[in-house]
Amino acid sequence: MSAVQQVTVLGATGSIGLSTLDVIARHPERYQVFALTGFSRLAELQVLCVQHRPRYAVVPDDRSALDLQGRLRAAGLATEVLVGEEGLCAVSADAAVDCVMAAIVGAAGLRPTLAAVQAGKKVLLANKEALVMSGALFMQAVKQSGAVLLPIDSEHNAIFQCLPGDYARGLQAVGVRRVLLTASGGPFRETPLAELERVTPEQACAHPNWSMGRKISVDSASMMNKGLEMIEACWLFDARPEQIEVVIHRQSVIHSLVDYVDGSVLAQLGNPDMRTPIAHALAWPERIDSGVPPLDLFSVGRLDFERPDEQRFPCLRLAREAAQAGGSAPAMLNAANEVAVEAFLQRRICFTDIARMIESVLNARPVRAVEALDAVFEADAQARELAAQWLAGR
Ligand code: NAD
Ligand code: MG
């Protein structure tokens, strides 16, 4: 392999960021950390900087920049600390960067991720919200710049691995009948419906198979995560919502499947550990060790499948409707969901209010076309305002 690759990790202090650094540290001859970014937990960012010695670190404001810069200097590091969204975009687009891990959570990741795309980088996409919000514009930017977009979300990474290399010709052209998106069903798959009203943030964040950030954990519990992933899959693989079927598979061993017209169904399996898709995308088209133990099918024993229940998981229906409506709808769905999840985590609303709030926001405004990024951010802002009104008006 050629020169050492320079990697920027956006959202380095998060669950995906830390797993990425774990894989990178196993291959110092292949990867060097160019920049690390964090929004909170800046003491952890400092520790990561000492471990990985990046050229840049990015923090949210001047005060924390001054503080971190002082500490890094005292530790003898030459790392330069940059600030805010401008800093995030700079370390994503820098000419010296080969690869950007987009692992900021939520809409906050859109501009920096797009900056990496527009600069033609190899972009490892974990930040699904960015693609959900701005799908058409995002994919257009990928085409224009020649960026290499590789999915980190385990389901999309699995689908990517099960598709032929020339799938960009179109799913029908390469013989795909449909894509089967697996879902664990989260911690409330079997909770009596009447009890869902009373579940706590702690219960929602205790995922049976995956350890993840709090926002995606709540999304998994409501299955909005699968809804966002359905929209993500539509953009990544140029699929229509009807070509994607959600299958509940509680063991989280099959990460997704592709069903071909000849009756062949290809699946990707593995232990539920995000270091597998991360290592796959980092090294693609080569393969490297990820640190994940080999899959032991004998201890897995069995694989179960069931159909999702949209009464239990209304967020799935809301996401499908937003995907079908297109335009501003997915950006509004995403923004309303971000506000709702935050309010649930702060115990201001109950779990079942999440879907109620999103539905009310989506019904409050007609769907508009989004031809430029401004319109995406406008839809995002409008949904947040409507969601705040919903919260205030209860
Ligand atoms: P996390 O909450 O653990 O980490 C989020 C990171 O983003 C942190 O580094 C945080 O400092 C940073 N951040 C938060 N708000 C920010 C802001 N306003 N500006 C700049 N940075 C900000 O989340 P995670 O679980 O690592 O998830 C990251 C992304 O990856 C999400 O989009 C999630 O949907 C996706 N994803 C995660 C997993 C997983 O297993 N954790 C799996 C698939 C996809
Ligand atoms: Mg996923």
Automatic annotation (TrEMBL):
Q: What is its EC number?
A: 1.1.1.267
For this protein, what reaction is catalysed? 2-C-methyl-D-erythritol 4-phosphate + NADP(+) = 1-deoxy-D-xylulose 5-phosphate + NADPH + H(+)
**Annotated Mn(2+) binding sites:** 153, 155, 229
Per UniProt, 1-deoxy-D-xylulose 5-phosphate binds at 128, 154-155, 184, 207, 220, 225-226, 229
Alphabetically ordered keywords of this record: Isoprene biosynthesis, Magnesium, Manganese, Metal-binding, NADP, Oxidoreductase
Domain 1-deoxy-D-xylulose 5-phosphate reductoisomerase N-terminal residues, every copy: 7-135
Family annotation (Pfam families): DXP_redisom_C, DXP_reductoisom, DXPR_C
The residue ranges of the 1-deoxy-D-xylulose 5-phosphate reductoisomerase C-terminal domain are: 149-237
Domain DXP reductoisomerase C-terminal, first and last residues per copy: 269-385
What residues bind NADPH, as annotated?
13-16, 127, 129, 213
Give the required cofactors: Mg(2+); Mn(2+)
The text of the family note is: Belongs to the DXR family.
Give the protein's function.
Answer: Catalyzes the NADPH-dependent rearrangement and reduction of 1-deoxy-D-xylulose-5-phosphate (DXP) to 2-C-methyl-D-erythritol 4-phosphate (MEP).
UniProt-recorded name of the protein: 1-deoxy-D-xylulose 5-phosphate reductoisomerase
Q: Which organism is it from?
A: Ectopseudomonas mendocina S5.2
> What's the name of its gene?
dxr
